[in-house]
Amino acid sequence: MDIIHDKTPRETVGRETTNRFRMQFQAAAFAALEILGGKDVDRVYCDYHDDFVVRRNLGGSVEYHFFQVKTKGRANQQWKVDEIFSLKKKGNLDTEEKLAAVRNSIAGKLFVHTIEFGELCREVTVLSNVHFHDEVFEVQNHLKDGKSNRAYITQFIERFGEIFSPGVPLSEDQLKAARSRLSLLQVSHLGETLEPFADAARTAIWKHSEIDLHKHEVDEIANSLVSLVESKSCAPISGLTKEKIDLVTGVGLDDLLKVLSISTTVYQNLLSGGDPAAIKAASILQRQLKAAGAPDSMIETASRAKVSWDVWLRTARHTFPEFDLELLLNDIDAKCRAWILSGSALGDLRNKVDEVLNSDLAQKFPPLDIDLLLGGFCASIVRRASR
Q1: Can you tell me the distance from the alpha carbon of 205 to that of 221, in angstroms, rounded to the nearest whole number?
Q2: Half-sphere CA count of 107, side-chain side, radius 13 A
Q3: Is the pLDDT assigned to residue 10 strictly greater than 90?
Q4: Which phi and psi (to 5°) does residue 182 adopt?
Q5: Where would I find the beta strands (DSSP E) of the chain?
Q6: For the chain, how long is the longest CA-to-CA vector?
Q7: pTM strictly above 0.85
Q8: Burial classification of residue 15, based on how many CB atoms lie within 10 Å of its CB (0-12 exposed, 13-18 middle, 19 or more buried)
Q9: Taking Cα atoms as reference points, which of 216, 385, 356 lies closest to residue 286?
């Protein structure tokens, strides 16, 4: 009998297509991690209008950054002008077929967004796992400048409006803005395996939230992130409302918190308490208390206690003698450290809190009770893990 591997497969296009989509999902997942920074980026749309779209919320107004993900199989390959722009260095842009080819090129499909979305389009990017030929950057730069010493680029500039906005004249300022929004980006976190992506994801998570993860956690999170983007990319959207489309196609903070195994309630509790590093604090608190055997409801209670402690401590610094307060904080830190080193059993935590509460020092702070001191221990847990 013939062995299956001895025969040449009829085609391997499906396998190559799968790899290409996987890298597209990796690119969108990596972009979504910027949401953890809590700044402008608040949602990443997956396979909606383009391969993915990053939304920035700037004081109530939004801007969109469109991405086309294009990959090649070998790292030493480069993207050329005809592949990115469908431009020929010889000949003229003098037929409808040639104009249509430019419009339907990789960059051309992105330029359409700059026209259709106008000022809402912040940027359009061709993102790849390999480099771009110098001549591709030359076209990009000359488009931005609005002039070129290359005849074929000059023709492109002159017919830009006709190509991307046929029948609707654009002002010179509109044309200049549209031409200048293209960027070209080569990244190293896209690959046929998840290893490069996982390494980059760990760095990005630390950069945006300061959450430090073990390798096995990173591998699990990397898989979950790519699976999340894949599900968002494949979900049907016909007949959905705008709000539903946001949820079905877009990755938001709630999605990322789930992937990171952080309770949204715990995060919101800490955020509402004014914690500038609420994601990091929620992650530390949840992981430490869950390891101790605390159920989700108790972790949520602990997060509220930490907020109450933080509020109390801000006032206490102006109310009680500084020396007494520092002694109290040192006592809490010492007993918290002893609890962690002893194995972090949940029952022992209550004992350690009681030890502080029943001490002579605690009597100098009449408002202290079991719930407030629990918050003090939670603050110590977060502080110790942040060192």
Answers
A1: 10
A2: 27
A3: no
A4: -80, 135
A5: 41-46, 52-58, 61-70, 78-79, 121-128, 131-132, 182-186, 250-251
A6: 91
A7: yes
A8: exposed
A9: 385
Tell me the CB-side half-sphere exposure of residue 30, using CA atoms within 13 A.
24
Q: Are 189 and 203 in contact (CB under 8 A)?
A: no
Across the chain, mean pLDDT equals 92
Q: What is the DSSP string of 119-178?
A: GGEEEEEEEESSEE-HHHHHHHHHHHHT--SSHHHHHHHHTHHHHHSTTS---HHHHHHH
Q: Are 165 and 115 in contact (CB under 8 A)?
A: yes
pLDDT at 4 over 70: no
Say if strands 52-58 and 41-46 run parallel, antiparallel, or are unpaired.
antiparallel
In tens, the pLDDT along 91-113 reads 899 899 999 999 999 999 999 99
The rounded distance, in Å, linking the Cα atoms of 173 and 178 is 9
**230 in Cβ contact with 194 (< 8 Å):** no
Provide the residue count of the chain: 387
- 69: helix, coil or strand? strand
- 170 pLDDT more than 80: yes
Q: What's the CA gap between 207 and 199, in Å, rounded?
A: 13
Q: With 60 as the cut, is the pLDDT of residue 344 above it?
A: yes
* Highest mean pLDDT (candidates 25-29, 169-173, 193-197, 291-295): 25-29
* 12: confidence class by pLDDT, cuts 50, 70, 90: very low
Cα 46 to Cα 41: distance, rounded to the nearest angstrom: 14
Distance from C-alpha of 89 to C-alpha of 75, rounded to nearest angstrom:
25
What share of the chain has pLDDT > 90, as a percent?
A: 83
End-to-end CA distance of the chain: 65
